[in-house]
Design goal:
The chain has about 425 residues and is of the alpha/beta class. It contains 15 helices and 17 strands. Helix 13 links the parallel strand 16 and strand 17. The longest helix is centred in the middle third of the chain and has 16 residues.
Length: about 425
């Protein structure tokens, strides 16, 4: 890693402005999963323990304008009244997050009314030694995501007055060129937090640049289109690729295998053939399901049956990998020294069709000698649901960011940090 971290700067008596990723699931104004808050605690403690004068935290929480529009349209379609203020209060306000953090730290966390108003600026100026202040949702300001650089800079210049040092510990948003993740870094000494450092250590070093061989990648999820870039990138690095989930049916159809009514991206079949050919020519072993659990309807209560051959009849759709496939994938994974996993093996949100995903999670948990990196998104939910999260080497806090990093892209929030 060629970027400075919080360990490379003197924090004593310094005002710290820190971008965190507290974009956590909310329900009725309560935090439902505090994993991302917990992930930021080591850096917060480090800053406070190393003599920082004040700490100002900033994060987004959902996307207020986009989410509100969708919620309003849904309410209108169902004929239900929509209270926009109540919706925003329950889903996008930082107060519950600040309260949650306060309990975790066992010390006060103040809350600003917004990010850049004069009232907030005065509040920052009045902070006393040791105070922690959380800004309101950064995405309440149009400048945060603006494509106009001048607008972003106008917000960034104000944010920069809140600290002497900027720390970015929000890996989950590092792929976004937003004001609080990238632009503000132009106006202050900018370094990575401990979480950001750990994410780069595992994803950039142990997965992208220096994976211990043999290297296996497990790629699942619904659509090939969302994973093309990562698949193509991995082909030059891995020894084995395991493909599961809905996207597997596009690959199976590309091989001329009947998949019935399973999810298939017809416009991606040729792309799937190209990837299959590249894998063959690169001497990469690419594994697809050989048996399936199928149903006649997409429902959590649908009655499933096992198809012991790699052909699915019309009227039936694949919902999970079958027991033969599980055993086949296990054999492959037990050979690996490095494993990267992104995407479930089936419709794991339905308990009846989570067996394949759970089996992969359990297999990884048993591999004590392998580096196991979970690349964010649904795979994180899967290892937690299976109760084996503590058996993984690293669980990324950023689905989109982790994929883009593995694809070889430059992440704006990381590029903006000071070089060593």
């Amino acid at each position: 890693m060629n970027k400075k971290t919080v360990k490379d700067v003197d924090l004593n008596d310094k005002r710290v402005l820190m971008r965190v990723d507290f974009n956590v699931p909310m329900d009725n104004g309560e935090v439902q999963d505090d994993t991302r808050i917990q992930a930021a605690l080591p850096t917060i403690h480090y800053v406070l323990d190393h003599g920082a004068k004040t700490l100002v935290l900033m994060s987004h929480l959902g996307d207020p304008s986009k989410d509100t529009k969708k919620a309003r349209e849904k309410a209108e379609k169902s004929g239900q009244p929509f209270d926009e203020a109540k919706y925003i209060e329950s889903k996008h306000k930082m107060a519950p997050v600040a309260d949650h953090l306060e309990k975790m730290l066992n010390r006060p966390v103040k809350l600003a009314p917004d990010c850049i108003s004069q009232e907030t600026q005065d509040m920052v100026a009045s902070l006393q030694d040791g105070d922690i202040l959380m800004l309101e949702n950064t995405r309440f300001h149009k400048e945060e995501k603006s494509k106009d650089e001048a607008e972003r800079e106008s917000m960034a210049r104000i944010l920069a007055t809140y600290g002497d040092i900027y720390i970015n510990d929000a890996f989950g948003t590092a792929h976004r060129p937003h004001t609080s993740t990238e632009t503000v870094a132009r106006f202050l000494p900018a370094v990575a937090g401990l979480l950001m450092e750990k994410e780069l250590e595992f994803l950039e070093d142990k997965v992208v640049k220096n994976p211990e061989k043999p290297f296996a990648a497990i790629i699942g999820g619904a659509k090939v289109s969302s994973k093309i870039a990562v698949l193509e990138s991995l082909l030059s690095r891995v020894d084995y690729i395991i493909i599961g989930g809905g996207m597997a049916y596009t690959f199976l159809k590309a091989r001329g295998i009947s998949v019935g009514n399973s999810l298939v991206e017809e416009d991606m079949i040729d792309t799937a053939r190209v990837i299959l050919n590249k894998a063959f020519n690169s001497h990469v072993h690419l594994y697809l399901p050989i048996d399936h659990i199928v149903t006649q309807e997409f429902s959590p209560d649908a009655e499933g049956k096992h198809v012991p051959r790699n052909v699915i009849d019309e009227g039936w759709m694949g919902m999970d990998i079958g027991p033969m496939t599980i055993e086949k994938f296990k054999v492959v994974l037990k050979k690996a020294k490095t494993i990267f996993w992104n995407g479930p093996m089936g419709v794991f949100e339905f308990d009846a069709f989570a067996k394949g995903t759970n089996a992969i999670a359990a297999t990884l948990a048993e591999l004590d000698d392998a580096i196991k990196v979970i690349g964010g998104g649904d795979s994180v939910s899967a290892v937690k649901k299976a109760g084996v999260a503590d058996k993984m080497s690293h669980i990324s806090t950023g689905g989109g960011a982790s994929l883009e990093l593995v694809e070889g892209k430059t992440l704006p929030g990381i590029a903006a940090l000071n070089d060593i």
